[in-house]
Amino acid sequence: MLDRITSMNVFTRAARVGSISAAARTLNLSASMATKHLDALEAKLGVRLFQRSTRKLSLTEAGQQYLQALNRLLPELEEVENRLASLRVEATGILRLNAPLSFGARYIAPLIGEFHRQHPDVIVELGLNDRVVDLIEEGWDLTIRTGPLADSRLVSRQLADCRMVICAAPSYWHRAGTPQVPADLCHHNCLGSMISSIAGIDEWRFGSKLNHKVAVSGALRANNGDALLAAAVAGLGVIYEPEFIVADALTRGELERVELGSEPVLLGGIHLVYSTRQAFPAKMRVMTTFLVDAFREHCPWDTRKINSRQRPD
Predict the structure, then answer these.
(1) Euclidean distance between CA atoms 309 and 162, whole angstroms
(2) Which of 68, 85, 102 finishes a domain?
(3) Residue 236 DSSP SS3
(4) Which of 78, 270, 62, 265 shows the shortest CA–CA distance to 161?
(5) Which backbone phi and psi does 190 adopt, to 5 degrees?
(6) Beta-bridge mates of residue 144
(7) What is the Cα–Cα distance from 265 to 145, expressed in whole angstroms?
(8) Is pLDDT of 302 > 90?
(9) Does residue 84 carry a pLDDT above 70?
(10) The domain that contains 284 carries what CATH number?
(11) Same domain, yes or no, for 102 and 54?
């Protein structure tokens, strides 16, 4: 009898990547075994989950409904299994965790003390940088990534979501005026990111589908959010950054946000990511559970009610 959980994982991976053989590779299965799992799942449910052809794999209506259900249920099941496994096996050794520089320094490093108290035999090696690391090639156990995920070799747990925020120092708004709509930003000194697909050096994107594009320019461009933050606090210009970067400055009144009447832009999730090709030892299980719990209980950067610059009547 085929393992039903494996069958569910084959189904969700195949739906994600659009290929049974590609899904099989991420789970270390043969294509024929992956197909058997899907056949068994369809037989168990009594419905077709995919429309299959030699060139295309597409979800049926039943498959879409089943995928939505599994996207909710499988992470919860994995979390329960991780909790039970961590009780059976003592967590020890060096855990290599990578995170974006600004996020890791602000929100991960302060948590390591509590993690150490709970798991004193685990040594955390925390790497901070803003490039996308290759977990498999570079030997990281876990990494934190912001924005949409595309690598089908990896699995993830969402820690939190995060909005993008337009803001500047009060002195800048007083000097340059407050924009009313996104298009007004073309008349402002917009400090762009060299690594962001949303807030780049010559174009900023708005709307829930990022389909509203505004051409921008400014006196500074940088590959790190903290550098742009420091310049904005000093009054140089406008920044468009994730809320977790600007939250403290908004709280202190060093920056003021504007809404611009546009649909809120979500960063695309903050995810804890790991490779499907490796074993999942206790040290990784306990860190995964610890971080998921930490961000579930408290989102430290929600500033929607703090320091929003009002439009003039």
Answers:
(1) 20
(2) 85
(3) coil
(4) 270
(5) -95, 120
(6) 272
(7) 17
(8) no
(9) no
(10) 3.40.190.10
(11) no
